[in-house]
Amino acid sequence: MGIRCGIVGLPNVGKSTLFNALTATAAAQTGNFPFCTVEPNVGRVAVPDPRLDTIAEIGKSAKIVPNQIEFVDIAGLVRGASKGEGLGNQFLANIREVDAVIHLVRCFDGGDVSHVDGSVDPLRDIDTIDTELMLADLDSLERRYDSSQKRAKGNDREAKADLPLIEAALVALREGRPARSVAVEPDDQARFAMLQLLTSRPVLYVCNVDEGDAAQGNANTAKVAARAAAEGAQCVVVSAKIESELAEIEDPEEKQVFLSDLGLEEAGLNKVIRAAYRLLGLISFFTVGPKEARAWTVHQGAKAPEAAGEIHTDFQRGFICAETIAYDDYVTLKGEQGAKQAGRMRQEGREYPVKDGDIFLFRFNV
After folding, report:
1. C-alpha to C-alpha distance for 168 and 146, rounded to whole angstroms
2. Residues 135, 80 contacting (CB under 8 angstroms)
3. Tens digits of per-residue pLDDT, 27-71?
4. Which whole-number Å values give the CA distances from 93 to 10, 173, 248, in the listed order?
5. Which residues contact residue 348 at a Cβ distance below 8 angstroms, ignoring those fewer than 6 apart?
């Protein structure tokens, strides 16, 4: 399962610096001026999961293959983007292609980096982007609504199904609420997603702070956290500057010393990825053998055949059963053989809901 997160925010909030740090590359040019990122830069990074290293050691796997997550650094947005100001049209097109929005918010004062609005106010900045995205959604939906109404009167089945969803989204947007605030029945979620509304994407707020505030945050991050909680969104605090410096350190022990000296337990990347997984309702399962130990991603609630399908469509099509060991059992009993002998390897069928950390061997027949 490919996971794609777009990093958005006003110009000069640190998007490209964070992107470079997260992907440990210098692919995105950085600079103290708006629209430094003209084309969206894309980078894939491994999802850190110490469990994978543990099972690989126990299983004596020759290779470790982690999950990956894709980050897209999208051009900065300004007021009027919904009407094409700045790089608005490009920004809006790029954001439609991501699974989740990482909204980077400036929560540091001073420094040499100018703010596009002349002062630091994270809630105002969030409102600026939210407003532009809602205006863009409102414009596209109002045009679509007229067309859908006409087709529905002509007994078009698709238009009839779309119309209630469009109407519900229009009500929310006209009230100043994003499309993700609309309660959508499970059976209608795929259809609602087909509307491709910018504000339907789940949001992770990432507060960019100075080095000294990376461990505890500050008054500005507290405001963003309260906003996120009210919206049912996720929020994490990172210092893009720290992440940038950390990305240049290759030795794992040196990295840990660097973090400890700053009062941090882990890299901001770990926090961002974990929060993105929570936001999207994702969990990991594993496969392990002499050749490789590999992590895979599925949505929470996925059944065993869906997990098998992540490996190969034939596995799902010809699914017979999933030989399953819980991660804790695999570690405690020192691998597959020990789990078998202790009766902790189970055969699960089609209706088995995947648990985070499950280790699978799929049986199938095509």
Report:
1. 15
2. no
3. 433 444 343 444 457 888 888 899 999 999 999 999 999 998 888
4. 16, 19, 33
5. 304, 321, 322, 323, 324
